[in-house]
Amino acid sequence: MNEKNSAPAADELPVSDAVREAMAITLRGCDELLIESEFAQKLARSEKTGKPLRIKLGLDPTAPDLHLGHTVVLNKMRQLQNLGHVVIFLIGDFTSMIGDPSGRNITRPPLTREQVKENAMTYFAQASLVLDPEKTEIRYNSEWSDKLGAAGMIQLASQYTLARIMEREDFANRFKNGFPISVHELLYPLMQGYDSVALQSDLELGGTDQKFNLLVGRELQRHYNQEPQCILTMPLLEGLDGVEKMSKSKGNYVGITEPANIMFGKLMSISDEMMWRYYDLLSFKSIQDVERLKEEVKNGKNPRDVKVELGKEIVTRFHSGAAADAALEDFVARSRGGIPDDIPAVSLSGAPLGIGQLLKQAGLCASTSEALRLVDQGGVRIDSQTISDRGLKVEAGSFVVQVGKRKFAKVTLA
């Protein structure tokens, strides 16, 4: 499905400086914009007529919680929203029941409508920490998908060939390797594409793994005599390790509802090199401001100070400016060996208690095996003393337990 080339349109509109600036903002940090010349013309037409573009992001709420990796696309939506365009936050309550097969070797279990609604309740509330909720159009694709019925679904399916669907890399690989492909999975790209028809989308955003589906939307719009949407794909954000994509299962994530001090501390742990990637994909600073910061670092400014700016910006976005200031103070205190003021208090029983069980029961480690591994690595302290004995039995008393740089608890053991 090649969309690299497009015939030049007759009577092209002139591209103003404002449109060039809007294009630069749109392209910042993106993986690909198809087709750039078409989108420039859409922007120019919007400028001339005063009619904002309709910009769509479809999300299937398969899980309720978001991390910073999820906000990469939302950040781009906010930037486009700030340019004055209509942002459509589309909740895929219908498509979630099909299950997005993108990048999977097995059929994704479909969700029930009840599961989707439950997840969607917190989804938009969290997304609103990035988007301006007053300027966001919220839609559910069941509005038009439910009305299609069997006849409408058959008519929609007639607009696309199996050969084109099987061009999708994950389907082709599964077929080649003998992995089953359910018929309902083949409908997913069509239903996502039909969303663009129903919403008359000018631009659709998605991750790089969504490119095929977004292109289907362009094709279907042509079938329905609409001007085809442009598509903008955003890269997947690497996690705190700087290698794997951000994921809760890999433990390298920053949750957008995490406490401010935890969020700030995690952001300060990224490498100096990775910091610029986070600036490109997460910061609302202008391109010029980021370039200025890069130049200052090149001229001797401590990268840590620039990382502090990033951490405070993101914590402020999801909490407040006061919370960001407090998080910085907390981080400085910890880096000097200090103990935060607001650590949780935990009461346990069973003294003497093994160090692994104590850490698990205090909520400082997910399991005893993880706890003992951290003891072996020198990452556990009791009252500022490093614990190296994994066989330690902790006697009754009250003490401050620290795991790593950021986890603390005041434990009372009886």
Provide the structure class.
alpha/beta
Count of helix runs: 16
Basic shape: globular
Q: Quick one: biggest sheet?
A: 6 strands, mixed
- From the alpha carbons, calculate the radius of gyration and give it in angstroms: 25 Å
Q: SSE order, as H and E? A: HEHEHEHEHHHHEHEHHHHHEEHHEEEEE
Low-confidence stretches: 102-107
CATH superfamily annotation of the largest domain: HUPs
Q: Order of strands side by side in the largest beta sheet?
A: 1-6-5-2-3-4
Report the mean per-residue pLDDT as an integer. 85
Please characterize this protein's 3D structure:
This is Tyrosine--tRNA ligase. InterPro entries: aa-tRNA-synth_I_CS, aa-tRNA-synth_Ic, Rossmann-like_a/b/a_fold, S4_RNA-bd, S4_RNA-bd_sf, Tyr-tRNA-ligase, Tyr-tRNA-ligase_bac-type, Tyr-tRNA-ligase_bac_2. Catalyzes the attachment of tyrosine to tRNA(Tyr) in a two-step reaction: tyrosine is first activated by ATP to form Tyr-AMP and then transferred to the acceptor end of tRNA(Tyr). Its EC number is 6.1.1.1. Belongs to the class-I aminoacyl-tRNA synthetase family. TyrS type 2 subfamily. With 414 residues, the protein is of the alpha/beta class. It folds into three domains: 218 residues, Rossmann fold; 76 residues, Tyrosyl-Transfer RNA Synthetase, CATH 1.10.240; 69 residues, Structural Genomics Hypothetical 15.5 Kd Protein In mrcA-pckA Intergenic Region, Chain A, CATH 3.10.290. It is 46% helix and 14% strand. It is built from 16 helices and 13 strands. Strands 1-6-5-2-3-4 form a six-stranded mixed sheet, sandwiched between helices. Strands 7-13-12-9-10 form a five-stranded mixed sheet. Helix 9 links the parallel strand 5 and strand 6. Helix 8 crosses helix 9, helix 10 runs antiparallel to helix 13 and helix 15 crosses helix 16.
